[in-house]
């Protein structure tokens, strides 16, 4: 009986339909174009897929190319079903594309159909698509003409988690362009533009017209989007493609949302594709035209068409781009190799001569560089840590080693010493300044000052402003470690002297603190990139242990409170000298040098990152979220060079508590601290001048309290800088360490208080991991809201404070930690360890470069290991080891560059600004102008003599 029924059904169909195979002269569409081939299949007529035209696929993506995909798509043939559908817009049954519930491993297995033919090149493609039910969870029902990610024409029907967000996007080049302007909301389907009569939640006919000059997308018959090659920046899709229908979900929270927690299903009602084959040659087209010159083609609009056009075996093979044979350009290769060889030779030479193992080069540095061998990250310019450390600028341990010097070196030093102001610049004013000829007293001279020191270790020195006696007092008072004067007499020819042991620097530990803080900041960024669950609550974990890390380790070690010590300690390096000496010249120097010192290295490294991005170094970053489940990393190239300049200038002028735009281009948005540093440098420099004039201690302290409280209330990072200033003041002016050390009871009580502050502040964050309330949110609520003037608590901005907003816990944490480090010898010992000391000069480099390494190398390794099925913990181990090795290996190479760019240029700027220039030397020195004149007179050619000499003089004059 059933057999008979099917027989009659088939009979009735065969009478009512036309097989497309009989349309040998193609199909005429609405626009007048004729397409040669067709594939037509109706879900209400065949429960099985027509195997000659459509097949299902089985795959599992190891990763997705999408900045926001936290799940990976897969497909299984068994997920294709066939069922009667009750959804509006369709009668009878349809193909069902099922989507499984997501796995713990973040894979979502759905369904994928594709045409057997893969030679589709232009055409008109219709389908009736039914999205999953509203409210089941977001997924994507896609219809795509796809060759590769760069050559895709597709539309995505997305039901979204919230039915109000549901929309259909019409795309070129792939899936993720989050803007709604490239799609239509379900709620707009029925509006006057699209006039779609049915429900968008039922079956909706869609159409894509793809030609060489246009891609049009339709809802029903209404044009929804039209793109032409003129409007796109990338090459137009022209490659032979395959037509796909897919039901997948990747959990992109900005477009499709999802995935559906309990799975879902979507429908495909019918497929009608009319297209050209890429396998037809020009000759084939000619013969087609000749043959069909007079014949009538079938019509695309004829709904009785069924079946598929015949095709050859070649049509089922995927298109392979012909391999391009690059012509070897020998001249270019030749020139490049020569340049490369010369560069390597020069670099090798420089490395060999000036490598860190080669101690002799210490003396060949310019004095100004020596002044600050220990560069300090974002705090001081021209004025190294050791400077502050020793109070006298006698140099770092490594420096107290005079080496051999070349004649030119002696010459330059002489020139430099001849000029009083010059020496003065490089030395603090308050300090003894060498000036040959003026004799007052004999003090040991820093080695880099004393080219004479190999003859005599002592040199005449005067103090320019203060009396010589005062100088001596100062030196005695500071109890300058006995920099072994005798050592300085080492013969210059004797290279590589062992460095003289100098007692520990006084503020080494501060350097150690900052170095540790910067390492921890890189760790935070590592965690945010690769292990988001340890940093961001309510994200998916790879392992349960990440939850515990979030609750226990993160509040202490991986908290952004570690930014605080950068700020508090930077003040000390800025204002230390002025506090000691009261010389405004210090302030002037800092003011001039501050901006270039910070901005030039940032601009240079940003340009480097820009370059790396453009050559594709961070290509794999876009694949990373599907493996790490962290959507935090994101970066995009600058639009134009003008934007780049704009962003750099913004770094200098942006008012704190905003995100500079460069954060969105720079690998890991660390640069937001640069404006904070810069703006608050002016604050610190101004503040220290005021403070020094307030002589009564209680008034001074009252002023501190007033300013710190106000900055805190105004949500300004200035509070950190005021605290730094206060601590420096207490130490330098009031010598409170001595005072405290003489009173053990007070000391221990105070130390306990500091420990409580340092440990207690993060513990408050810890509490909020377990309890519903959050102290930081509450605290941010009591500040005034900038736009309305109300309490933040009463505005719509109330919530967890953004990362660029100061928090009270960060402030108290920084105070506690900074004080502990200042006062406790035990903590000092820890922070003075040699590893942190080694790292300290490199922290600016570390700070600027770590993001690029994580996001380029780290992403490549992580994505590929994950694709090979390596367990995630092992993957992380490998990524961490590789990236940190590369970062630390980069430091010694990049730091000198950054130092040159930042510090040397700054020093030069200040020198040029503040010094009287040296008397000019004639260009021809040591030869006189006669050289030219004689040459002219020897000239055999007879010329009017006077004229000649005149011109010569003029030229020499210009040269001079
Ligand atoms: C299948 O659906 C199409 C479009 O709605 C319709 O034209 C066709 O008649 C249907 N076929 C059968 C057998 O019902
Ligand atoms: C078809 O629909 C019925 C009832 O709606 C359902 O129970 C069945 O699982 C569906 N089959 C497929 C293959 O989707
Ligand atoms: C479409 O929906 C989204 C999300 O609900 C909304 O933000 C957007 O403004 C809507 N677009 C239009 C054109 O209505
Ligand atoms: C219909 O909705 C689209 C947005 O999806 C909008 O651009 C268009 O102007 C709307 N048309 C009318 C007539 O409101």
In short:
This protein is of the alpha+beta class. The longest helix is centred in the last third of the chain and has 43 residues, at 872-914.
General form:
elongated
Cofactors and ligands: 2-acetamido-2-deoxy-beta-D-glucopyranose
Q: Could you tell me the mean pLDDT?
A: 80
Distance between the termini: 113 Å
SS-derived structural category: alpha+beta
| Main beta-sheet strand count, sense and barrel state | 10 strands, mixed
Radius of gyration: 37 Å
Q: How many strand units?
A: 25
**How many separate domains?**
3
Report the uncertain regions: 1-12, 360-505, 940-960
Helical segment tally? 27
Helix content: 40-55%
Strand composition percent: 5-15%
Descriptive account of the structure:
The chain has 960 residues and is α+β, with helices and mostly antiparallel strands. It folds into three domains: 2-309, Jelly Rolls (Sandwich); 367-489, no CATH class; 508-913, no CATH class. It has 27 helices and 25 strands. The strands form four sheets. Strands 1, 4, 8, 9, 11, 16, 17, 18, 20 and 22 form a ten-stranded mixed sheet that branches. Strands 5, 6, 7, 10, 12, 13, 14, 15 and 19 form a nine-stranded mixed sheet that branches. The radius of gyration is 37 Å and the shape is elongated. The termini are far apart. Mean pLDDT is 80; it is low at 1-12, 360-505 and 940-960. One 2-acetamido-2-deoxy-beta-D-glucopyranose (NAG) binds at residues 164-165, 180, 185, 188. This is GH16 domain-containing protein. Keywords: Membrane, Signal, Transmembrane, Transmembrane helix. The chain crosses the membrane at residues 330-352, 509-533, 553-575, 596-616, 667-691, 711-733, 745-764, 839-866, 872-894. Residues 931-960 are annotated as: Disordered. InterPro entries: ConA-like_dom_sf.
